[in-house]
Amino acid sequence: MISLWRDMNRRGQVTVALAFVLLLFAPVAATRYVLSVLTLILYFVYVGQAWNLMMGYAGQLSLGHALYVGLGGYVSAALWVHFGIGPWLGVFPAVGIAAAFGAAIGWLGFRFGIEGVYFALLTIAFAEFTRIGFDHIGFVGGAGGLFIPYEQSRLGEWWNLRGSQLFFYYLAFCLAVLAVLLTALLARSRLGYQWLAIREDETAARALGIDVFWAKMKAVLISSSMTAIGGVFYAFYYNSLFPAQLFDMSRSIELILGPIVGGLGTVFGPVVGAFILTPVGELLISLTEKAGINAPGAKAIFFGLILMTIIYLVPTGVWPWLSQRLGFTRRRS
Amino acid sequence: MLSIWLNVVVQGILTGLLYGLMALGLSAIFGVVRLVNFAHGEFAVVAMYAAFVLFRAWGVDPLVAMLPIALVFFVVGFALQRTLINSFVGRPDHEQFILLVGLAIVLVNAVLIVFGPDAQPANLPYAFDSYMIGPLLIDKVRVYAAVAALAVCAALFGFFRFTRTGTAIRACADNLVGAAVIGLDVRRLYAITFGIGLACVGAAGSLMVTIADAVPSLGPAYTLLAFTIVIIGGLGSMAGALVAGLLIGVSEALAGFLIAPSMKSMFSFALLIAVLVLRPQGLLGKKPA
Amino acid sequence: MSPLLSVVDVGKRFRGLVAVDRVSFTVQPGEIFAVIGPNGAGKTTLFNMIAGVLAPNEGTISFRGERIEGRTPDAVCRLGVARTFQIVRPFPGLSVEDNVMIGALLHRTDMAAARRYAREVLATLDLFDKRDFRASTLTLPDRKRLELARALATDPKLLLLDEVMAGLRPTETDRMVEILRGVNRDMGVTILLIEHVMRAVMALAGHMLVLHHGAPIAKGAPQDVVRDPKVITSYLGQETI
């Protein structure tokens, strides 16, 4: 963490500090709509960071992270709806179950040498399998969805995640900041270096004494657990859960675009990516509405084009390019 | 009782041939260009709508429309590879992935804007005709589509086995450096392969219209389906893609019949997971050295 | 003195083809031991069995009295056997210093201590000034030294070098010989090299083993081995020393 701070020059430090303070006091000036967009951005910073740990640092391409969001959300919501167990307690089984799925996928993939696109497909297969499964589990409402009742009387019970927009904004803010700090911490840890070694060259990593299987397992366990907490947030923020919405592959894709666009394997990449993509998406919605184009796909088309343009022009992500252009880092080479 | 089962299996086989043809296109691109075409299913959906429009507007039977559509798709594929995609060959998986996901989003939403989100049935005049063979009652459209798919597959096999270009493409897939060393124009061959891959998906999509309604949301589902089939069949194995296509077709039909239609793809994914774990090189794939 | 590494009757077959045929030798602590032989003699197979990449079909390999045959490469490395690759494979996207950091972190948990040690090793191998370069930008001799540095950073008792001279020009070879001598003398690391370049072997090795068609044909001090008629006919006859 400290070294992350030290690696930046004065300019970088001031920018990061300024962004932090701006976000901290944003609710003073922001309208309800702006606050909801910021909450969404911070949510994507959080889950994007969780994915970034696994892909950007350990080099394991998961295209099924919606699985962990969905499991985290469903487990905590079902415990609340059926048994009255609050999310602060429910988050533990939620994380546990998501981590168990992560462990199963990791074990299958890493033990049997499934790599790259094949591993990605394994993660998709698990997510889709679970999505269809949840469509048929009556206990959580099946395809009809699971709803967390909106009770006016509970509105102040922040300990049960029953709060206002402002409350959820700060919750997302905390999650995002913690995720960034955790990433910075891990990136400079022994485990972080082991991940980098594995990402770069697994055979060489093994020859340097790294237990590749366990290092990858730790990556998938940490990443799935973190993502599941994001799922708990999602469930209690939106109050309605549908398998088709939570587990769908488009959700997994949505979640990973930020880190890729922002810059994989960097601490601030997922942050920058989320702050670019989410507002662009929102902007496109309002623009198409203003222009009177009543076509649900218009926004998505622009979005697709923007993605293609970014990956074409800055394939390693916006943040590495930006921090170099603006001179944020101290690195000499 | 047995005859019901047989009917289900035969129907699965016939549908599976279309799946196989679609997957063949992906297999060619994946195996030769080593590029992950995450927009494959979306191309299939575009082809479905093309065939749908040709039939609705001018009454062109999809079995006939398949040829011009495949041709146009070939040209599009060739051009795409030459312009946009070529610089992404050999780049990390996730970069290719983003490019093609972007393309997929554009394609499927363009279709959505033009045709709307609702299912569009082609309503062929012979849609409800069927053949009676002993205890079997087989839909005429499925037979026609399956025969057409087989014909396209046979043509492809012939192309890769007997023509100069086809052999050159296989050489690229086997040994890229060697292919470049003996003076093959790899970029051109890649473009042709991408064109062929899209032509397959164009033909398969056109045929699909005869047995399924065109819906934009089918795009991602077909992409996943095609990938599942290619992995199950074995990367680089064209026969594997066909066999796995049949397997998935039958498994879907059986699952839909025995349990619930909505759970049919769950079986495909279970099959995929099993194959990845037990035989990662796929059913007919070569063992990695 | 008990040997650091002892290889006893080790054999390896690939689909019936004998690659290594009952090879035995011992490496004493502190020495430089060389295995030579023409292409296809089974050198690399032998190397891979010691490094844990391959498991032998028969025989035993012991390191400091502990059996290591059939263990995984990472387990072997953790016991104190580091290796380099014939075709170098540094972590291309990481800086030179981070490459060595990864090695230094094997037996160190304190980040600052690991970084200090990594820099020390880099300085020993004349790479300190290039520590912020990306590994992929280095020249081949630099990459070879980087790989050596990375292996040394894991605090090995025994260093396995797979044709570390291959691809180096004569002056670069001499420099590498000097470095390896220093590593052996000053850091007290025992070295087992598999080598083609006879000039380097003669300059470095205290003992050597000659393999031919997977079987040992001579063993001993270099000056004796090169006079052995069997060695001359099967191997050295093709090359001038």
What descriptors fit this protein?
heterotrimer, A: 333 residues, ABC transporter involved in vitamin B12 uptake, BtuC, 15 helices, 74% helix, 1% strand, B: 289 residues, 2 domains, two-stranded antiparallel sheet, globular
Shape assignment of chain C: globular
Largest interface: A-B, 48 and 41 residues
Q: Which structural class do the helices and strands of chain A define?
A: mainly alpha
Mean pLDDT of chain A: 89
Strand fraction of chain A: under 5%
- Major sheet of chain A, described briefly? 2 strands, antiparallel
- Poorly predicted regions of chain C: none
Question: Could you give a quick summary of the protein structure above?
Answer:
Chain A is mostly helical.
3D structure, described in words:
The complex is a heterotrimer of chains A (about 325), B (about 290) and C (about 240). Chain A has about 325 residues and is mainly alpha-helical. Chain A has helices at about 1-5, 10-30, 30-55, 65-85, 85-110, 115-135, 165-185, 190-200, 200-205, 210-240, 245, 250-260, 270-290, 300-315, 320-325; strands at about 145, 240. Chain A starts with a helix and ends in an 8-residue tail after the last helix. Chain B has two domains: about 35-215, no CATH class; about 220-290. Chain B has a two-stranded antiparallel sheet. The mean pLDDT of chain B is about 85. By secondary structure, chain C is of the alpha/beta class. Helices cover about 35% and strands about 25% of the residues of chain C. Chain C has nine helices and ten strands. In chain C, the strands form two sheets. Chain C has a six-stranded mixed beta sheet with strand order 6-7-8-3-9-10, with helices on both faces. Chain C has a four-stranded antiparallel beta sheet with strand order 2-1-4-5, with helices on one face. Classes of the chains: A mainly alpha (about 325), B mainly alpha (about 290), C alpha/beta (about 240). The interface of A and B includes residues 117, 253 and 312 of A.
Sequence-ordered SSE layout with sheet pairings:
The complex is a heterotrimer of chains A (333), B (289) and C (241).
Chain A: H1 2-7, H2 10-29, H3 32-57, H4 66-83, H5 87-111, H6 116-135, E1 146-147, H7 165-187, H8 190-200, H9 202-207, H10 212-238, E2 240-241, H11 243-246, H12 249-262, H13 269-290, H14 298-313, H15 318-325
Antiparallel strand pairs in A: 1-2
Chain B: H1 2-33, H2 40-58, H3 62-85, H4 93-115, E1 130-133, E2 136-139, H5 140-162, H6 164-174, H7 176-181, H8 186-211, H9 218-233, H10 238-258, H11 264-278
Antiparallel strand pairs in B: 1-2
Helix pairs in contact in B: 1-5, 1-8, 1-9, 1-10, 2-3, 2-4, 2-8, 2-9, 3-8, 5-6, 5-8, 6-8, 9-10, 9-11, 10-11
Chain C: E1 5-14, E2 17-27, E3 32-36, H1 43-51, E4 58-63, E5 66-67, H2 73-79, E6 81-83, H3 96-104, H4 111-124, H5 140-152, E7 158-162, H6 170-186, E8 190-194, H7 198-204, E9 207-212, E10 215-220, H8 222-225, H9 229-234
Parallel strand pairs in C: 3-8, 3-9, 6-7, 7-8
Antiparallel strand pairs in C: 1-2, 1-4, 4-5, 9-10
